[in-house]
Amino acid sequence: MSRSTAAKPPRTHKLSTQFIVFMVLAAAAPLASMIGNLPIAISRGTGANVPVAFLIAGLILVAFTTGYAFIGRRVVSTGAFYTYVAEGLGKPLGVGTAYCAIISYGAFAFGLAAACGYFDEQVSIAVGHRVDWTICAAVSVLLTGILNYRSMDASTKLLAVIIIVETAVLVVFDVSVVAAKGWAAFPLSSFAPSQWLAPGVGVSLMTAFTCFVGFESGALYSKEAADPVRSIPLASYVSVILIGSFYLITAWITIGAIGPGEAKSQAIAHGGTLILDLIKQYDGETASDIAGVLLCTSMLATYIAIHAAASRYVYALSREGLLPRALARFDEVRNVPVAATLCMSAATVVCVTVIAIAAGRTDPYAAIIPVLIGMGTLGIIALQAAAAIAIVFYVIRRRKEAGPVVLVASLCAAVGLVIALTTLCINFTLLSTVNTPFVAWLPVMYLVTLGTG
Fold first, then answer.
1. Which among 20, 31, 78, 96 has a CA at the least distance from the CA of 305?
2. Are 388 and 109 in contact (CB under 8 A)?
């Protein structure tokens, strides 16, 4: 057979560094984080000093990424944190962490699927053509399943567009505030040293860390990355620096837009509409309406990214024999764990159906969706803390190779993330926005899962 007629091997869909960055940014959801979490940090946290919390969280996660990059260059696995915990603390704890990861990402994905339906319904009501939230949720689940089953580069192209547009809305808001208020948009009082440990700092730190959830997901795409040894650590650094810088500046400018003296009272008065109301004040009603619509697409982008991350954990555990091996089927051409992706889609359909049935007796957004997202958030930060501790032990065993900078950074990250996790456990009812007594005990489920695993 001549060279010209020889069959060409099928082209595989390998992910570049920038594609992985977009997946990570989508999971962090800049617009949804700022609209949903920043008002809580201001009203129930340290008020005008909230930017300090984002600075501290960002520095801790940069320190974490230093050790994360060190181990990521030497241990390349789709299992990500499960593999790192196993390397640093032993296989038994690694297995327990793996099952906790499934619960965390699964709960987050289920909650986001339902939340996409709920917010889409609110938008449809606003435009005068109400569409039931279950239909909106079904469309979100179907679209996410198709995109993630087809190939990840298809998903990341859509996510790139969504991330750029939603970030542009916040950038326009930031620029408008600076244009209107000048240097007053950057109040130095927000960083007054006397306020770094002000009352409410725990809530502010908790909220800041929840805004970063998703940045750790880059390592889950090791098998699909074109050059995992280089691209995964680089994508992690780029993502956490971009996310941290953007959150810090936007939070600071938001305080400047309100005025430091009025920040807490205004956040309490406006509640969850604070950011949308500020966008309306500085950019006009149309911009606020656009931001409201983009909140829905931001949540969809987060759902796509978290669904993909959960699928990778299912695939990794199945490949290790910790879940049925049938779920480890991987399409080498499309570069997708197809069985795990289908499994997550099916599980989401079941969960959303249960929520829809329960909706006849209770408001799903008030009583169910926040608990699922809260459980997912808590579990993912617990994974970060476990990985940080494991990385410390891994680095200590290789301290000559790692050097003092990586060791000190890893130690600081472990301490910071354990404190963040403790704060989240104490304030879990605030995180989940549900005060039902049994909800406060839900974090114990992770300890039971860890022990069982």
1. 20
2. no
Tell me the per-residue pLDDT of 300-348, one tens digit each, with 9 for 90 and over. Answer: 888 888 898 889 889 888 888 888 999 989 887 777 889 999 999 999 9
Residue 67 amino acid letter: G
* Distance (Å, whole) CA 157 – CA 180: 35
pLDDT of residue 249: 94
* Cβ atoms of 307 and 31 closer than 8 Å: no
Please give the distance of CA 299 from its chain centroid, rounded to a whole number. 11
* CA-to-CA dists, residue 31 to 28, 36, 207, 211, 295, angstroms: 9, 8, 14, 10, 6
pTM reported for the whole predicted model: 0.84
CA distance 384 to 4: 51
Phi, psi (degrees; rounded to nearest 5) at 197: -120, 35
Evaluate if residue 29 carries a pLDDT over 50: yes
* Two structure tokens written together for 331: 């399409």
Give which of 42, 48, 38, 37 is closest to 191, Cα–Cα.
Answer: 48
Handedness of CA 60, 65, 71, 76 (dihedral sign): positive
Is residue 417 within 8 A of residue 385, CB to CB? The reply is yes
